[in-house]
Structures are given as structure tokens and as C-alpha cells.
Amino acid sequence: MLIRFKDLPSNSRVWIFQSSRAFTLSEIVDLKNKIETFLENWKSHGHSFESGYELPYNRFVVIGLNESSTDASGCSIDKCMNFIKYLETVYQVDLLDKMNVTYRNKDLIEYVNLKDFIKLAKSKLVSSDTIVFNNLVLNKNQYIENWEVKAKESWHNRYMKL
Questions:
Q1: Long-range contacts: 35-41, Cβ < 8 Å, 24+?
Q2: pLDDT at 10 over 70
Q3: I want to staple 8 with a disulfide (CB 3.0 to 4.6 A). Which of 12, 70, 113, 162 is the partner?
Q4: Bridge partner residues of 14 (DSSP)
Q5: Whole-number Å distance between alpha carbons of 44 and 138
């Protein structure tokens, strides 16, 4: 069952997929329809999920799942990952590559591969105070509190010390 993301409990499981580019406004309309259709039909062993989504900055796909009544099984998670792969193909973007970093550069949101981010850190073009997107958060509460943080407050900090 699709519900508004903000209505999911704070302990709801969260998956964050960063796009290699911002989605266009027309893509956003289409993307919303595709995600809503998927979430309306997403099930585990015949049981519907209570799930929602957000598309922050037209750059991320955030899916939340309330597991208090139905846990996500391996098969249902595979269905979600296959859906994300389908979105990659439709929109010609990378959504699953975890070796990339998204960060703020003033008012812009930048997307670079990890090697380039390390080079930026070494050359002091990004710092421990640079706002990064910590896509490793596990639940809605962590997403709200620790997703968009200074690099020194996330796993990115290890690269600030090189």
C-alpha cells in the first residue's frame, strides 16, 4: 500500500539511490507514476507493504518501507533492485553505483566517482565541512537526521584525512 513518505514510522527501512544526473521535470512526472505503480504492487509472500517514496532535489530516489507488519524478504528486495535497474535503463542514469559521491558545492549538487572525490579532498576543494549525502542510512529517522551532513559526520570523513 502506497502512503506518503512523511507518514511512514521513523523506524521504517530506507533505501537511497543517487542519480548520476538530475531528472528533468517531465521525467519526474513519469518517474513518480512508475514508482507509485511499483510500490502499489510491491509484496512479500503475497502480503502488501506499507511504503512511500521521495525524490529529493530531483536527484535521488528514496524508498521507505514500514516493516512492522510485513518484513521485506530477499525476493521482494530483489524485485525492488530489479525495478531500480529498470529505471536506470529507462532514464539512462546510474542509480546503483555505490562508488560515487554526491555532495554540495555551494548551491549545486555535484556527483563524482569516489576516486575523484578523494582527489578533491587531497587538493582541499572539498573539506570535512562539505555537505555530503550519506546514502548508507538504514531507516527514516537516520535519513532525516544523518543523510545530508558534513563530511566529518559521515563515512566520507576518512577521505578528509589523506
A1: 35/61, 35/63, 36/2, 38/80, 38/83, 39/2, 39/63, 40/1, 40/2
A2: yes
A3: 12
A4: 64
A5: 19
Is the entire prediction scored with pTM above 0.85?
Answer: yes
Q: Look-up: residue for cell 524478504?
A: 73
Phi, psi (rounded to 5 degrees) for 103: -150, 165
| Cell matching residue 130 | 562539505
How far from chain centre, in Å, is Cα 153?
A: 18
pLDDT at site 162: 57
pLDDT (tens digit, 9 = 90+) per residue, 31-50? Answer: 999 999 999 999 877 778 89
CB 88 within 8 A of CB 95: yes
Reference 137, options 152, 148, 151, 126; nearest CA is 148
Please check whether residue 50 is in contact with residue 1, taking contact to mean a CB–CB distance below 8 angstroms: yes
